[in-house]
Amino acid sequence: MNKVILATIGACLLLCPVHGQQGAEKKMVISDFEADAGEWTGLTLGEAGVNPDNDSKIAITREAASVKTGKGALSYTYEITPKIIRVLALQKPLDLTGMKSLRFWVKCSQATSIIVGLGEASGASYQSNAHCPVGAWQEVAVNLDELTVDEPAKDPNGKLDLD
To answer: Which of 27, 30, 90, 103 sits most deeply, having the most CB atoms within 10 A of its CB?
Structure first.
């Protein structure tokens, strides 16, 4: 079984836009993991396409060893299955206009690779990956302009449109 726990500084997922005034950084909270798991869902990608993942577990944990800061963290637990990719997803439109980076903390029960992806309404999706060592909090910071498009033909301008 593999377990991934998400948290961030201030117990929220942050998107950091272009610096406006000197040293000023605007933060946009996507999820703070203090109340409930909100709209986070599990999906499977496999030979049968994209489907809900009824075998994984998404919950808010309050165990001190599993919380980076604040009172809660998002816990995603799943079994590793051949030919199935499991995805933790937040499937809702977000206006990311002016955003430069995405930052969060992750802690994994097994050493693994984390794929961070954003999708456009056109069907194009952009990704980046990060390594997650076993049992240690790892900060993941992704510059949005460095994400790689998965299928260039799906995006005529070849750039992630943040609106």
So the answer is: 30
